[in-house]
Amino acid sequence: MMNILVPTETHDVMASVLETALLVQQRFGGYVEGFALRPAVPDYVPIDMVSGLAWHVDENADEETRRQAYGLFDDFMRARGLNSSAGSAQPGYGWHAKAPAGDAFLASHGRVFDLTVLGRPVSGRAQPSMASLEAVLFESGRPLLIAPPTPPKGVGDTVVIAWNGSTETARTVAFATPFLRKAARVIVLQVEGWSVPGPSADQLADSLRRTGIETETVLSQREFRNDGETILAQTERLGGNLLVKGAYTQSRLRQMIFGGATAHILAAANVPVLMAN
Questions:
Q1: How high is the mean pLDDT of the chain?
Q2: Where does 2-147 sit in CATH, by number?
Q3: Where are the domains of the chain?
């Protein structure tokens, strides 16, 4: 059983987010909870001192956003045959109707879920938001599953671990253990020159085998200037439908300025990506 959090917005990637979450729910059983993810309402809103019009417009817009998000989430779950099961131990779904706005709630609420599912940001669009992804990565203490723009047909049949020996990746592999145990194939991928001082891919594979997880290793030459491109190309060749990767080994600012594997994967991955930091 797995507790899965699905912050819900009305954007083009949301169908993939919901489908990705459902595929995970079908693999493990468990509970899927949605809530309306929306920007925080400012503490001070300029208003007409006589009519108070601006404040009411903001309140009405926020209520409409919540209504649309709930309709999208509930319709999807009902169409897939899930039952409402909030507060019970049975597989199903529920809706957090009183969730406040803002990424701070998203990050804190995610601390009591096994997994949060969000969409991958798409260039030129405000949603899905990179700020929301980073709130989960840095503040929830739990893993994030990033859905690709197009709904996947499966999640976790073949798992590719992008291994660079880092603390962040080691923590992500630990979070990924339920997926590794269910996978038909687990591959540890190491790209030449893309690593920090630490255990090798073979050492990780040996460790996983000792826990009963059959594991292969693939050592790859660097094919592109950005290591993230090599990781994604190899994942596609290997038939991976879940990529496991630690988030930011470098600082976020350095990745933004100079590029990095994480930045590229967050911009271009077409398979679900499990990340933690």
A1: 90
A2: 3.40.50.620
A3: 2-147, 158-276
